[in-house]
Amino acid sequence: MNQRFSDHQGEQHAATSASGAVPGDTIRLTTAQALVRHLAAQRVATEDGTGTEPLFGGVFAIFGHGNVAGMGDALYQHRDALPTLRAHNEQAMAHSAIAYAKAHFRRRMMAVTTSIGPGATNLLTAAALAHVNRLPVLLLPGDIFVSRAPDPVLQQVEDFYDGGVSANDAFKPVSRYFDRIVHPAQLLSALPRALRVLTDAASCGPVTLALPQDVQAQAWDFPVDFFAPRVVTFYSPAPRIDEISAAIERLQRAQRPLIVAGGGVLYGRATHALQRFAAAHGIPVAETQAGKGSLAWDDPLNVGALGVTGSPAANALAREADCVLALGTRLQDFTTGSNTLFTQADVIGINANAFDGLKHRALVVEADARLALEALDSLNAGLQDWHADRTWTAKAHELAATWRDTVYALTHAPQSAAVLPYEGDVIGAVQRSAADSAANDIVVCAAGTLPAELHKLWRAARPGAYHVEYGYSCMGYEIAGGLGAKLARPEREVIVMVGDGSYLMMNSEIATSVMLGAKLIVVVLDNRGYGCINRLQQACGGAPFNNLLEDCMQGPLGAPRIDFAAHARALGALAEHAANIGELEAALQRARAADGTYVISIDTDPARTTTEGGWWWEVAVPEVSPRASVRDARAHYDAQIAARGNRNCNDNANANAHND
């Protein structure tokens, strides 16, 4: 029988309650009242372990005819135990809820409720984002009448062939668990299932409970003990002994190992275990977008970002490594360079979810990151006497130190009044403005050029300091995500860095942050369009087209000249425009001293990027085109594909010979 480590017991999912209720006692509540009351009863241990606090930090709600009567009444009754927060956009409020969970390393979370119709379907993008990023959020969209008496109701999407389908069925592929509550009693099974998914490291992600509006208002006699306060802990699988033994055997053969630290390191609270393990065995650590902050930026073994947006240090070591320990990462294409970066290496996938651990043909250890690292050193003395080749460790130290010097130079470059700054200049100004409190900042970002530059250049001094959504790369997450991070960590300064394109897509939660007194500092980098995709378009041989405003179809008045500071002031924020990096630094000091949300805009260069580091990323180029530049780009693409095929063949042959 395959055994697991006994210390797993401390990580298992459990619930304790002390209600004092007499078995068989019932209370008559509507479905909505029972749902809200059950959520409000869920507790979780505080981070310091000295007490408990609510598992759900609150419920974001935008009311409509599908939830204002049922859920609205229930939330009003429990507004002290489970706060209701009003937002301005359904997708944005779900982003905020997801960011709240991310900032709490998945130990606390939020719910969101909407009406039926567009209110519900506005959540779909956020549901997909949470699914991709393995983050918990409870989605409670209103639904059509189960009775069907008033069909079709306002905003109902009718299926011509299936009378049981509603718009909410679209949530099924982007939910880790989906249920439609068609009777009050169904909550007795649906809610425990939902909570298990939300608190399970392997299955964590969005849960959707669709709530037909007539069922929300329907009453039933619920068991009283269903609402007893419960302290919930989190399920994280312990490693199997046979899998740890296989990983030890493979590592002991390695001379040039590399650890790839993903989000599972942070969510598994494995940062200290990672630092100890890497230092004890002399293993360099490269970080994914989700895993950045797993080691402090100045740790001698932190070689920086990996992959397409990676540092030269991390990518050079990845190409030479003979064994990669993929720790809590799903190895998406930006991390692996479209599966070209470390094909020569044996891969060990340590992940709470075997679906992710299996990627890159890895040897799987299905386990919590912290427990797995500890087991590697404890099983029969494990790796305690093993160390990477000393020259490899020394090389990692040297490359990491050189990269830290390069980052300093890039973020402290002299500024010319004749040249627009680029993202690296702005990042440097933001970090310099923090002085000694830099470790207390949380930077929030999502799509475009900024995540690439932040991945390389942001100096994350502690876990959680780097909050960049790049699994779904969702434009519009930034400001809403910043709000969620601030609600989770009100004592920290939250710096939202956002491009003008994302700002225009979704900025409404500036008003929500003002209303809630949740201060954000928002830095808008205005390159007058979609600069990142404009560069990608040209790298694929395309003409500049429909990305920068100057290259778009325009009417007689031309492209708009957008005053982002004036717009932010109209939403209730303090705001100003900075003409250069010097003015930006001064504005940041005013923003840090301010009591409320402060928006600063600055014009930036849409063409310039950090050239150091990086790796190939596969983007398909047309096979035929009248443009010579597209044909040239296709030839380069074909050469890269051929090189990947040859490299995989050679690396597989080398690996087989090594294994023999």
UniProtKB/TrEMBL annotation:
Positions of the Thiamine pyrophosphate enzyme N-terminal TPP-binding domain: 60-155
Origin superkingdom: Bacteria
Compositionally skewed regions (Basic and acidic residues) per UniProt: 1-11
Keywords: Hydrolase, Thiamine pyrophosphate
GO-annotated molecular function: 3D-(3,5/4)-trihydroxycyclohexane-1,2-dione hydrolase activity; acetolactate synthase activity; flavin adenine dinucleotide binding; magnesium ion binding; thiamine pyrophosphate binding
EC id: 3.7.1.22
Gene Ontology terms: cellular component: acetolactate synthase complex
Ranges where the Thiamine pyrophosphate enzyme TPP-binding domain occurs: 447-601
Pfam families hit by this protein: TPP_enzyme_C, TPP_enzyme_M, TPP_enzyme_N
Gene Ontology biological process terms in this record: inositol catabolic process; isoleucine biosynthetic process; L-valine biosynthetic process
Keyword hit for RNA-binding: no
Domain Thiamine pyrophosphate enzyme central: 244-376
Class of the enzyme per the UniProt entry, highest EC level: hydrolase
Disordered: annotated segments: 1-23
SUPFAM superfamilies in the record: DHS-like NAD/FAD-binding domain, Thiamin diphosphate-binding fold (THDP-binding)
Protein family per UniProt: Belongs to the TPP enzyme family.
Name of protein: 3D-(3,5/4)-trihydroxycyclohexane-1,2-dione acylhydrolase (Decyclizing)
Organism: Paraburkholderia phenoliruptrix
Gene (name only): iolD
